[in-house]
Each structure stands twice: as structure tokens, then as C-alpha cells.
Amino acid sequence: MARSMLIISRQSPWAGPSAREALDIVLAGGAFELPLGLLFLDDGVFQLVGSQRAASVEQKDLTANLQALPLFGVDALFAARRSLAERNLDESSLALSVEVLDDAGLSALINRYDHVITI
Amino acid sequence: MATLHLLSHTPFGDSRFSSCLPLLADSDALLLTGDATYALTAGTQPAAELERLPEQVAVFALDEDVQARALSALPARVQLLDYAGFVELTCRYQRVNSWL
Amino acid sequence: MKFAIALFAPPHSPAARRALRFAEATLAGGHEIVRLFFYQDGVHSASANSVAAQDELDVAAEWSRFVSANQLDGVVCIAAGLRRGVLDAGEAQRYQRPAANLAAGWELSGLGQLHEAAQQADRLVCFGGH
């Protein structure tokens, strides 16, 4: 059986290439139809905010790429409840459909995967 | 099942330490390397938070980093490792989550 | 046990040295390294162009020696490398850049190599930060 990997993305889209390079790992794995999960943690939850304007700082639109994840067969998408709450983000108005997990849920999630990469 | 969480950033002014601690399950372990070993500094908030972790959570630190920083009066629960011990630890836990 | 080791930090970061000492210890402990993969700022640790001061450890050079001496599979992410100016001769020519700087022992390839390594490995251990 294929080994599974959880990618934990904890940088905002605007903090350099980290958010994109975390997503690139997911997309590359999706192309091989590997069992992957993507968790948005800490500032990574800012990737889930709608109506961001990448062109304003001459960048590519990361959110558009995130929305393509299900097309790549990646639908195990998660966000940390604590991170959302700290940043006053409303779980019901995110730009991507994610499962929101509390701390215990996150512990269990991490322990379900063979490999974890936190960027 | 269990995960070895690996930290290398300082707990002072970086959020990784405080983000990691609530995610530790009882069977998980924490390995402090680099500036993350400053969490062992006696009398500090991070050291107090380490002491408050559930008893079952094992706490390790890379000895060379502790030595380099002249850290003393370490919490009793901390076990110091060399690189051979580090490798052995990664074998003992099912996965390693490095907070890059 | 089979290890995949990934480095995300440049040679001047303590994490680059820590990853090297860990990699050495895996081999010394009788384990196998299925692949080394350098990603993000880790690509700088595979540059032949960083110059350490004479009395300082040359981590990039040590990595190059380690990979060559143990005939390891050392892969540098091509997209991350291009973004940060770590190029082999082929890429330098393709993008008309003045020099190639990928150190001996390494090859540029895609992120699929990270996943392939993770599929083979019992443990994926990543290094970054300070």
C-alpha cells in the first residue's frame, strides 16, 4: 500500500514562497495519486481567506491553485480551529472547503499519516 | 502511532513552540534542537510549559546544542541525546514531524 | 531502517550541519539512506559557490563530499533551485545564465523524487530552521 503524507502549511501566502512550495509538494504527490492530506495551521489559515488580490503585490494567485486541489484528487483538507479563532476567521466563510479540527483532532490527524512535512 | 516532534526555533518570539505543544498526544515525544533548546532555560515560561506537559510525553534535547548554550539546571524530565541517540529515537517513533 | 532525509535550510544555517551529522549517524548505525532531497532554501546547501571562511566549517562542501563518498542519491529540487539560482550546466544554458553552480554529487530533479523517496522510506526526516 502507498505510504501517506500529511503536509502542514503554516505560512501566509505573502511570507515568501513557503505557502506555494508546500502546495507544490501536495500537487506533485496528487499527480502520482498518492494518499495525501493538507492541513492549514497558524498563519497558513490566511491562505483560506477569499477575495485576496495577489496582483496588488505582483504575485500569482495561490487561492486559485488551492481550489484546483480536488481536481488533483486531493480532498483531505483540514484547518486548525485554534488558528482560525486566534485570527478571527469565520469557519463558514473560507474560500476552500476544509474540515476544521481542534487540538485533539489535530494530534489524531498527524498520527494517521506515515510521513509529515511541516513548512 | 506516535509522533516525534522536532523543534529547532527559539521559543522566545517564534510561534512554533507554542503551536506544537497543544498538539502533543500522550504517546508523542518532543525533541529540542538548535535554539529550541533555550526552552530548557530555568525560570522561564517555556520551561514551565514543558513541565506542564502530560507525564507520558517524553522530552529530549540534542546534547551538543545544550552544551553550546551553557544551559544548566535542566528540567528533570529532559533526556539528552547524541546523534546516534537521535537516529535511534527516529526509529522508535513512527514518524518525525519537523517544524521547519 | 530506510531513511529519506530532506534539508530545507541554507549552508549557513545550523540545520544544514545538523542534517549532515544526522545523515552520517544513520549510515554509522547501519541504516540506509534511500535519498537526500534538498528543497526550499536547502538548495543553497548544494551550491558549489558558497565560500566559508578558512576557520569555519564548509557545510556545503562537506555535504558534497558525503554524497559522493557514500554514492548516495542526492537530489536538489529543480524548481526551488531555479528560483534561488542553483543551476546545473544544462539549466544555466537553457536560461542563459553565466554559470552553473550545482556541487558534485547532486542532480536537479522534480518534487516527484521527494514522493518516490517517501514511498521507499520507513522514515522521512526533515531539517530546517535554526
UniProtKB/TrEMBL annotation, chain A:
Family classification: Belongs to the DsrF/TusC family.
Protein name: Sulfurtransferase complex subunit TusC
A Pfam family annotated for this UniProt entry: DsrE
InterPro entries cross-referenced by the UniProt entry: DsrEFH-like, Sulphur_relay_DsrE/F-like, Sulphur_relay_TusC/DsrF
Domain of life: Bacteria
Gene3D superfamilies recorded: DsrEFH-like
UniProtKB/TrEMBL annotation, chain B:
Record-linked InterPro entries: DsrEFH-like, Sulphur_relay_TusB/DsrH
Stored Gene3D superfamilies: DsrEFH-like (3.40.1260.10)
Pfam families per the UniProt record, alphabetical: DsrH
NCBIfam families assigned to the protein according to its UniProt record, in alphabetical order: sulf_tusB_dsrH
Name of the protein in question: Sulfurtransferase complex subunit TusB
Lineage: superkingdom: Bacteria
From TrEMBL, chain C:
The protein's name: Sulfurtransferase complex subunit TusD
InterPro entries per the UniProt record, alphabetical: DsrEFH-like (IPR027396), Sulphur_relay_DsrE/F-like (IPR003787), Sulphur_relay_TusD/DsrE (IPR017463)
Keywords from the UniProt entry: Cytoplasm, Transferase
Organism: Pseudomonas songnenensis
Top-level taxon of the source organism: Bacteria
Protein's cellular compartments: Cytoplasm
Family: Belongs to the DsrE/TusD family.
Pfam families: DsrE
